[in-house]
Amino acid sequence: MNNYVKRIILTFLILTTTILLVACQNGNGENNNGNDKYNLEPAPGCLVPYLDGGWVCTWADEFKLDQVDPFKWNFEINDSGGGNNELQYYIKDNAIVKDGILTITGKHETFRTRQYTSSRITTHRKGDFRYGRIQIRAKNPVGRGTWPAIWMMPTRSIYGGWPRSGEIDIMEYVGYDPSKIHTTIHTAKFNHKLGTQIGKSMTMNSTNDFHVYELEWNPGELIWKVDGKQVFNIVYNAKLNDDVPYWEAHPFDQEFYLILNLAIGGDWGGAKGVDNKAFPTYFQIDYVRYYQRDFEKVDKKAPTKVEYIYKSRLANTIHWDKATDDYGVSHYKILVDGEEFGKANLQQFTFKNLDPGDYMIEIIAVDFTGKESEISPKFQYKQQ
Ligand SMILES: [Ca+2]
Ligand SMILES: [Ca+2]
Questions:
Q1: How far is the CA of 288 from the centre of ligand 1 (A)?
Q2: Ligand 1 centroid from CA 262, angstroms
Q3: 167 given a catalytic annotation
Q4: Ligand 2 centroid, distance to 37 Cα (angstroms)
Q5: Which helix (H) or strand (E) holds 132?
Q6: In degrees rounded to 5, what are phi and psi of residue 21?
Q7: In this structure, which residues have their CB less than 5 angstroms from ion ligand 2?
Q8: Cβ contacts of 36-40, under 8 Å, gap ≥ 24
Q9: pLDDT by position in tens, the chain (length 384)
């Protein structure tokens, strides 16, 4: 082979490789939305690695070590009262792992500034979750003045400080009202400071035995389950909430981390005082398991098309009816005069950086495998 032919072949090979690489990158770029992952592998040690429906356990703590796993949990050590005038000093010593169980002990003892000690641990930046199912098997403590919680806070708070970036309470309990548990969300529009928080209280005995508390979290939807049975759900409704940007009503499209704590006293837990004879008292957790859906394995159909688009009460904003899909809509593409203009996680979009004037808007729904709906009917839109 002469040098000229070699050079042509080499040039051809380099070109082909470059085209292939670019094509692969484009494919990944379109399929990957946020932290969604594909071809999921179960987390090491998760005792139930798969659930029906394509769910894979990608983060878990079965509490098999002889200490709180420092690769999974952070301790929050403080006497700051959790923003609720709670009475405990959170320290490390009160969280013990033994025989497969994490026990957080509330104690009546003097420690520096406080008369009670307890522990509070979080998965912040060690387990950050967006969509999926999180299951926690736990047993509540007994005693007036106890206030244990299994809850989630935003990893990055991109919509602002509490409650603007949201809070999800998977399970709360106050010891003076031991026949109930509570599930709640707090957002800018719906929070307890305004008296508008959304939640549900359920009658059940949560202190006699362990129960599985679960949050199933899909785009625009939160479902709470106890022992596998749905007890409550919240669906974001773009039509009802078009007086605010979607994140003020439902900021649950970002990563959240898990918090386990046992508060003593405080505005709610201490509303009927604290019974010092109740201590020590124990909040026990058998496991935490987080499941993500392996969409590539189960999702077969593209979303239905968006049929109706509306002008919102908010300036320069539209909303639309939710598309449906066999396994869920990841996001929507917004087209302006036939060109892709932006992306929305929920069914609302505010046009910024668009000159005043008339435009033709169309929307495409995209599922978690990147399959796209047909294009919606055209919507005539005027930017102010
Ligand atoms: Ca366990
Ligand atoms: Ca689908």
A1: 8
A2: 19
A3: yes
A4: 15
A5: strand 132-139
A6: -60, -45
A7: 299, 301, 325-327, 367
A8: 36/130, 36/131, 36/292, 36/295, 36/330, 36/368, 37/292, 38/294, 38/295, 38/296, 38/369, 39/294, 39/296, 40/292, 40/294
A9: 455 545 555 455 444 444 444 333 333 223 334 445 568 999 999 999 999 999 999 999 999 999 999 999 999 999 999 999 999 999 999 999 999 999 999 999 999 999 999 999 999 999 999 999 999 999 999 999 999 999 999 999 999 999 999 999 999 999 999 999 999 999 999 998 999 999 999 999 999 999 999 999 999 999 999 999 999 999 999 999 999 999 999 999 999 999 999 999 999 999 999 999 999 999 999 999 999 999 999 999 999 999 999 999 999 999 999 999 999 999 999 999 999 999 999 999 999 999 999 999 999 999 999 999 999 999 999 999
The bound ligand whose nearest atom lies closest to the alpha carbon of 54 is 2
User: How much distance in Å is there from the Cα of 250 to the middle of ligand 2?
Assistant: 23
Residues whose CB falls within 8 Å of the CB of residue 218, separated by 6 or more in sequence, listed in order: 131, 328
Active site residue 296: no
Catalytic residue among 62, 86, 167, 362: 167
Answering whether pTM is above 0.85, one says: yes
The residue annotated as part of the active site, out of 30, 62, 109, 172, is 172
Q: What is the dihedral of CA 240, 245, 246, 248, to 10 degrees?
A: -100
The pLDDT of residue 315 is: 97
Ligand nearest to the CA of 284: 1
Nearest ligand (C-alpha, residue 62): 1
Q: How far is the CA of 288 from the centre of ligand 2 (A)?
A: 28
The two structure tokens encoding residue 206: 């949560």
Query: Is beta strand 88-90 parallel, antiparallel or unpaired with respect to 114-118?
Result: parallel
Nearest Cα to Cα of residue 81 among 39, 116, 35, 38:
116
Question: Residue for token digits 């005038």?
Answer: 85
CA of 281 to the centre of ligand 1 (A): 19
- Separation in Å, CA 209 to CA 205, 288, 328: 8, 17, 35
Q: What is the whole-number distance in angstroms between the Cα of residue 97 and the centre of ligand 1?
A: 9
Ligand number nearest CA of 368 is: 2
Q: How far is the CA of 370 from the centre of ligand 2 (A)?
A: 8
